[in-house]
Specification:
Rossmann fold, alpha/beta, about 25% strand, five-stranded parallel β-sheet, Jelly Rolls, 6 helices
Length: about 375
């Protein structure tokens, strides 16, 4: 297991809303061509870049030994910062037009950089205004281009909710959410694929967690169409990227508590999601997950929804309900920890290999 994925074993520096002691000297706009964003973003007229979906990330290369961001945050967001593929630090972002150091203490040579939003949109929307480097520093485009892209649509499991929690009885804290430890990003890493996460804790396909009605007003079938998770219903331009595969993991919240949706209501909502994906992405493979955390025996609901589509490129994978150990595989609030997420990924990866024709390798699933 590599140290940059086992984050709790790494010495992490968390910085919040604190201006740098020494100002950087070169400013580069957030939308510079040397910076590659993956996920749903919006470029502002002044060149700033705004986003809120969990897992959104940017990649570039830099020189000069240090890098800061001029950034605005509506709430609080946490970011994983990877330098040359290794976790450099976790940064806590809050405040308006704040200058925050993301990288320091490295040599002035060329380094690869990935900055990943590890927390959900409901906790904060981020706008990056500028990158600031030493006067001798610069940004250069990352030459490596991935040829695969997986889009994940889901709930708290896809987000990595509580993944860094020490035990199942620990309450949720924002700093323990880490999408980089989720089955979704583990799966994408294994296949060396780009990914986008359209995920929101507590949301379902037809009913959200704890709702008083069987059919909620706004679920993931609505959210999946939006540029932002929260604060705006602006519709996403689906021509901006085209995934090779969509993985849907929903249902845990739909059936968590009474009143549970009727079979007909679930089928109607789930098939609507599938039809929306067909409309926007064409005939790409779609993998529907019947997750090990679905609390009710409703597998037939999923079968009926998939059968109703009569589409040979829509697949259904049933994960065993006893897949996770209910102590050692759980983090905060009874959600999977990294070990639990690895087990989920180990079940999903072979199936994706089959339906996509992506060969399995000897690499570790991490």
């Amino acid at each position: 297991m590599k140290k940059h994925y086992l984050i709790w074993l790494v010495s992490i520096a968390i910085l919040c809303c604190t201006p740098e002691a020494k100002s950087a000297e070169k400013a580069i706009k957030a939308n510079d061509t040397a910076v590659r964003y993956t996920g749903r973003t919006q470029i502002q007229p002044d060149g700033s870049v705004t986003f809120d979906w969990v897992g959104t990330y940017l990649e570039t290369r830099f020189t000069g030994g240090a890098l800061s961001l001029k950034i605005t945050e509506t709430g609080t967001s946490y970011y994983n910062v990877f330098v040359d593929g290794t976790l450099h630090r976790v940064v806590k972002v809050c405040g308006t037009d704040t200058l925050i150091n993301f990288v320091s203490g490295v040599n002035r040579k060329m380094h690869s950089l990935r900055i990943q939003k590890r927390t959900e949109g409901e906790f904060g929307n981020t706008t990056i205004h500028q990158f600031l480097l030493a006067s001798s520093g610069d940004l250069q485009e990352e030459p490596k281009v991935r040829t695969r892209h997986i889009e994940f649509i889901g709930n708290s499991l896809t987000c990595g909710y509580g993944a860094e929690g020490k035990n199942r009885d620990e309450p949720f804290r924002l700093e323990t959410e880490n999408c980089n430890l989720s089955f979704s990003t583990i799966t994408a890493r294994y296949f060396d694929a780009d990914y986008s996460l359209l995920a929101h804790s507590g949301k379902g396909a037809v009913r959200n967690y704890g709702d008083s009605v069987r059919v909620s007003a706004v679920t993931m079938k609505n959210k999946m169409l939006q540029t932002f998770d929260e604060g705006s219903t602006q519709q996403w331009n689906f021509t901006d990227y085209h995934p090779d595969l969509v993985v849907i993991n929903l249902g845990t919240n739909d059936f968590s508590l009474e009143p549970q949706p009727y079979k007909s209501e679930f089928i109607e909502s789930y098939t609507q999601m599938l039809k929306q994906l067909r409309q926007h992405y064409g005939n790409i493979p779609i993998l529907c997950i019947y997750c090990c955390t679905v609390p009710a025996p409703v597998y037939s609901f999923y079968e009926a929804a998939v059968d109703a589509m009569n589409d040979p490129n829509i697949f259904l994978l049933k994960m065993k309900n006893d897949l996770l150990n209910d102590t050692t595989d759980l983090g905060a609030v009874w959600h999977p920890n990294y070990n639990g997420h690895r087990k989920m990924a180990m079940n999903i990866i072979p199936y994706i290999s089959t339906i996509m024709g992506w060969e399995l390798s000897r690499k570790t699933i991490e």
